Amino acid sequence: MKRSLFLAIAAIAAIALVAAPRVSHAQLGLVKPFSLGVAGGGSLPMSDLSNDSNTGYNGTVAMAINLPFIPVGLRVDGAYNSFGSKAIADAKLHVISATGNLVYRLPSIGVSPYLIGGAGLYMSGVTAPGATSSTENHLGWNAGAGVSLPLTVFKAFVEARYNRVSANGASMEFVPVTFGIMF
């Protein structure tokens, strides 16, 4: 009888420990003040850009500054996006950007959802065989959402951001979907 009671209490305690919500470092205000990251994934052309370009790829480097005890942080991103042309073989559109972003961490336990948005400089260029490449600089903005998963040494994240670049009365729109890690 005592053994059964002991096993029942041990089982309930084990279930409570596994099922009980854990308080994350972010909820306690114990956020790393500074982190660096890398990410990569696919880039989806939107609107008029999707008429001329195929799905592409992206790579990003990031530097985050997290403020303790508040859910808002800053992040500076450098990104490279490349899209193939639907009309001209071996032609590519390249978009290099440097953006400053606000990151709002939503309250949660374990997996941490967040909203991100900001603005910056976008440098776009086209390369094609036998043609002179040209680049243009324009201002643009981005907004999106992501999920961060704290692991032992680093945080993994997945995010998608809508980017809009205004140029000469037209706009270029694309959505990179990235997977990355922050150290």
CATH architecture: Beta Barrel
- State the order of secondary-structure elements, H for helix, E for strand: HEHEEEEEEE
Whole-angstrom Rg? 22 Å
Largest sheet: 8 strands, antiparallel, barrel
Percent in strands: over 45%
Distance between the termini: 51 Å
Number of folding domains? 1
Question: What top-tier CATH class fits best?
Answer: Mainly Beta
Helix content bin: 10-25%
In short:
The chain is mainly β and 183 residues long. 13% of the residues lie in helices and 60% in strands.
Report on this model:
An eight-stranded antiparallel beta barrel has the order 1-2-3-4-5-6-7-8. It has helices at residues 2-19, 47-52, and strands at 34-46, 56-66, 72-84, 92-105, 112-127, 134-150, 155-167, 170-182. The longest helix is centred in the first third of the chain and has 18 residues, at 2-19. The protein is mainly β. It has a single domain (26-182), classed as Beta Barrel (Porin), CATH 2.40.160. Mean pLDDT is 85; it is low at 16-29.
